[in-house]
């Protein structure tokens, strides 16, 4: 397909979502935007955008593309974007929704307070009136304010004209144009691991299409909605049952070829429970250690709850793992010892007491494993503290910030923190994607990103909608 669909990206960060669209192909990027400069440098390095301030864009730079606008979204004049935008994508920072609230007496409608950043996302839709938009956020948005926040957002998108009079009071904008309403085709929480990302990362994805873009025939529209859901929910995906693992993306091989590497990792922990001797350690021996066979495939099925597999299906799944490793550029590229121009694979030094503690914590366990011992550390109720990833299970969510044991820790016993490049692989950033900034800035860029592979699935769904566009005929 030679046609390129134009994209305006908001709250872009380092460009995880946008990279997914780029990987899918068929999209042309007009503008990106973020309030921070370090991710802008990363984005510009990889996408070739010119970095401009909001003031420059609103002035003499307006109409030039592609540009990355650094500044608060509230200061961006969307009328300066030349041409039409087929797609608007973005995810306002989740903390913005702590102020999307309304007392119960207001639930029936008079006025609901909305987060300002979210309101500016709506302002972009009013100005640009894209054919499709993609809104992503944290799953907690579904239950925020007893569901009022999510309900309000869906209603805003579905009745844009009607709701704009309320929203423009928040954004301080007097735009008087009439807009098409959007039909919501998908609004669900997606688990990235079910789509091939080696990480349990759940995101709320809302996809809306302008009403005049959609098929007028109800049956065709229903089929389109079903196809979008199949792509984004992974209903036909083998990864739903047989997820890609950290061991595979770090070693650069499908699991069926990693028997020796897996056994070596787990044998390192043979004496750990006897050394720690806590109740938690004794329970781990009974529930985990004694059930291990040290066969990579059998233990993979055990830890992922995939009992009694169809072995032809399993073989197809490992083929899919290999194809994905090839697609991401990881195949045959073992991460250990690799050097990158951005120095993202440098192993950080750890304090000796931290390393001693970590040697007593096996994969998929955390600081609770050593509670009551000489290696104990504070952190009750916080599962992330000194938690090791498991070689055979999708990683827990890669986070952007935090010290005190929240860095994310390698499954090998002699390793501590994950490197930024290891985090990037768990997020499915290709090794060719280079980051700009200090180590902590790069960690934040990786942790805040939409996994590019999830972005690619979203792009596929968006393309399906655009190809069904009725408005251009």
TrEMBL record:
Active-site residues, as the UniProt record annotates them: 94
Broad class of enzyme this protein falls into: transferase
A GO MF term: DNA (cytosine-5-)-methyltransferase activity
UniProt EC number: 2.1.1.37
UniProt keyword annotation of S-adenosyl-L-methionine present: yes
UniProt KW keywords: Methyltransferase, Restriction system, S-adenosyl-L-methionine, Transferase
Signal peptide bounds: none
Keyword 4Fe-4S among record annotations: no
BP GO annotations: DNA restriction-modification system; methylation; negative regulation of gene expression via chromosomal CpG island methylation
Catalytically driven reaction(s): a 2'-deoxycytidine in DNA + S-adenosyl-L-methionine = a 5-methyl-2'-deoxycytidine in DNA + S-adenosyl-L-homocysteine + H(+)
Pfam families documented for this protein: DNA_methylase (PF00145)
Family assignment from sequence similarity: Belongs to the class I-like SAM-binding methyltransferase superfamily. C5-methyltransferase family.
Full protein name: Cytosine-specific methyltransferase
Provenance organism: Caldanaerobacter subterraneus subsp. yonseiensis KB-1
């Amino acid at each position: 397909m030679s046609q390129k669909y134009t994209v305006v990206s908001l709250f872009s960060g380092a460009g995880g979502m946008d990279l997914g669209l780029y990987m899918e192909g068929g999209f042309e990027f007009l503008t990106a935007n973020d309030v921070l400069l370090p991710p802008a440098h990363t984005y510009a390095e990889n996408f070739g955008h010119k970095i401009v301030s909001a003031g420059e864009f609103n002035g003499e730079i307006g109409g030039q593309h592609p540009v990355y606008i650094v500044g608060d979204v509230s200061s961006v004049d969307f009328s300066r974007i030349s041409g039409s935008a087929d797609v608007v994508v973005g995810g306002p920072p989740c903390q913005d929704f702590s102020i999307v609230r309304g007392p119960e007496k207001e639930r029936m409608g008079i006025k609901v307070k909305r987060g300002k950043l979210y309101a500016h996302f709506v302002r972009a839709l009013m100005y640009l009136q894209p054919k499709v938009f993609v809104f992503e956020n944290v799953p907690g948005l579904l239950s925020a304010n007893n569901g009022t926040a999510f309900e309000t957002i869906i209603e805003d998108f579905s009745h844009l004209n009607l709701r704009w009079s309320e929203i423009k009071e928040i954004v301080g904008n007097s735009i008087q144009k009439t807009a098409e309403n959007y039909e919501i085709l998908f609004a669900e929480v997606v688990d990235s691991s079910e789509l091939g990302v080696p990480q349990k990362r759940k995101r709320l994805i809302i996809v809306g299409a302008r009403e005049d873009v959609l098929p007028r025939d109800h049956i065709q529209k229903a089929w389109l909605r079903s196809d979008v859901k199949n792509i984004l929910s992974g209903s036909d995906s083998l990864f739903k049952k047989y997820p890609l693992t950290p061991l595979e993306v770090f070693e650069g091989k499908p699991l069926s070829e990693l028997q020796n590497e897996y056994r070596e990792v787990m044998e390192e922990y043979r004496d750990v429970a006897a050394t720690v001797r806590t109740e938690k350690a004794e329970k781990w021996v009974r529930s985990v250690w004694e059930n291990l066979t040290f066969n990579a495939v059998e233990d993979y099925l055990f830890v992922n709850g995939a009992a009694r597999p169809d072995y032809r299906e399993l073989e197809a799944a490992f083929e899919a793992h290999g194809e994905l490793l090839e697609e991401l550029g990881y195949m045959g590229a073992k991460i250990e010892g690799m050097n990158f121009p951005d120095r993202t694979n440098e192993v950080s030094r750890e304090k000796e007491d931290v390393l001693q503690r970590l040697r007593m914590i096996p994969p998929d366990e955390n600081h609770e494993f050593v509670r009551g011992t000489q290696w104990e550390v504070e952190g009750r109720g916080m599962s992330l503290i000194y938690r090791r990833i498991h070689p055979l299970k999708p990683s827990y969510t890669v986070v952007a910030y935090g010290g005190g044991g929240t860095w994310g820790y390698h499954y090998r016993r002699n390793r501590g923190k994950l490197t930024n490049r290891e985090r990037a692989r768990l997020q499915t950033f290709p090794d060719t994607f280079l980051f700009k900034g200090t180590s902590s800035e790069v960690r934040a860029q990786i942790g805040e990103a939409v996994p590019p592979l999830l972005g690619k699935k979203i792009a596929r769904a968006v393309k399906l909608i655009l190809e069904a566009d009725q408005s251009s005929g």
